[in-house]
Each structure stands twice: as C-alpha cells, then as structure tokens.
Amino acid sequence: MMGSSPPKGRPISAFFSFPWCRRHILTTGLSVVALSVTADIASNASSSPLSSADVLHFMKLSLCLTDRKTLDPVLGKALFSKLTDNNPKRRTQLDQLLALFNPQTWDNANHFVKEAVKENPDAPPLIRDILHGWYRGIVDNKVVVYRSAMMFSLTRNILYPKTYANGDLFYWTTRPPEVPLPKAQPAMQPDVPETLGQ
C-alpha cells in the first residue's frame, strides 16, 4: 500500500512523476473550467429575465432609429440582452429612452433623436450603441451577429468582396451546384510526352 509520503532514500521528484503531474494539471484545469461555466450560468440565470414587452418596445425603437419596416426579432432580443446584460446604468438609460419614445408617434429618426438629446444630453452614446448593434452586429466590442448584420444586407447584390471571384457576400458558405460529368470525348487528345513514366 502506497503511503502519502515518498519512501526513504528516494528523491521527492520521483514521487511526483511527470505523467502524474500532467493528469493532475489536466484534471485541475477541467475543474476550474467547469466551475467558471457553472458560475456564469448561475449569474445569467439570476439576472432579471427579459420581458416580451421590453423587447417589443426595443424593436419599435429600433425600427424608428434604423428607418426600416422590418427587423429580425431574434436578433433584436439578442441585441437587447447584450446591451443591458450586467450594465444597470445602460438599462436605466434605455428605459428612459423608451419612456420618451413610447407615448407618441415620431415622424422619423431625426425628429426622435433631436427630442431625445434635448431631454437627455447623455442619450447619443446609447443611440450609437443601438445602431452599432444593428448595423455592425457588435455590442461592447463583442460580436453578437455577423452574417445578418445590416451592413451586409444593405449592400447585398451591390457591393462585392475585393476578390477575383465575383460571387455575392458569403457565397463561399453555400454548397456549390452539382455539375454533371462530361460524357463527350475531348476534341483534342492531350499532348503527353512518350517518355512520360519511363
């Protein structure tokens, strides 16, 4: 039976053999990762859940600011969550912005933004964050969405990537069409040297 201390006459480095250290480090690392993931899930679960009314008001505000008739509600919920997640100050500012927006109908985004800035001079950074979320898909320097960001949808079929392949944006992510193999014989035989393979 192995004791907890190394036998007499053997160096302590022999007791802590290299394979045992690797397994120990790996197990410890996995335990730390599991604890951090559990803590992250617990913190997200403990935060206040998003109500459908808040998301709906945010979508209406976003439609006004972007001057669009339709926006993706799934993306809107993700942006709203990322904007307000662990940021009580921004959530308070957003609630104030929504309180100003909801009671009346606005002619356009410029009309609303002028009134919002007049009501609260600290509103422009929040409005900029909302627009960056929709157009660039980025909130707090973290990517929320990439392919569905409005900067791509607005230029689709107009601007093409700077490349020799004249495909649409993200054409490389779709499966290419099936092309049947040619059945006809070539018009010319390939010019193969007679010494090839000798």
From TrEMBL:
Pfam families: FAD-SLDH
Family annotation (InterPro entries): FAD-SLDH_ssu
Name under which the protein is recorded: Sorbitol dehydrogenase small subunit
